[in-house]
Amino acid sequence: MKGVPLKVIQELMGHATLDISPQVKQDAVKRLPPMLPLGTCVRPDMPAVA
């Protein structure tokens, strides 16, 4: 179900809540791309924030 929001999957499965362990959350955060410096323009059609 790649690309399907987790909230949708949760509801389709009939779960009121999802209990995600701290280790699973930590692993997910490690997979995020690095943060860009504040004010960095990532889209050429959007002005940079000063």
In brief:
This protein has 50 residues and is mainly α. It has helices at residues 6-12, 22-31. The model has no long low-confidence stretch (mean pLDDT 82).
How are the elements arranged and paired?
Layout: H1 6-12, H2 22-31
What is the terminal-to-terminal distance? Answer: 39 Å
Low-confidence stretches: none
Count of runs of 4 or more consecutive helical residues:
2
Order of SSEs: HH
State the total count of DSSP E strands.
0
Radius of gyration: 17 Å
Share of helix, binned: 25-40%
Structural class of the helix and strand makeup?
A: mainly alpha
Shape: elongated
| Percentage of residues in DSSP E strands | under 5%
Largest sheet: none
Quote the average pLDDT: 82
Describe the structure.
The protein has 50 residues and is mostly helical. 34% of the residues lie in helices and 0% in strands. It has 2 helices and no strands. The longest helix is centred in the middle third of the chain and has 10 residues, at 22-31. The radius of gyration is 17 Å and the shape is elongated. The mean pLDDT is 82.
List keywords for this structure.
single chain; 50 residues; mainly alpha
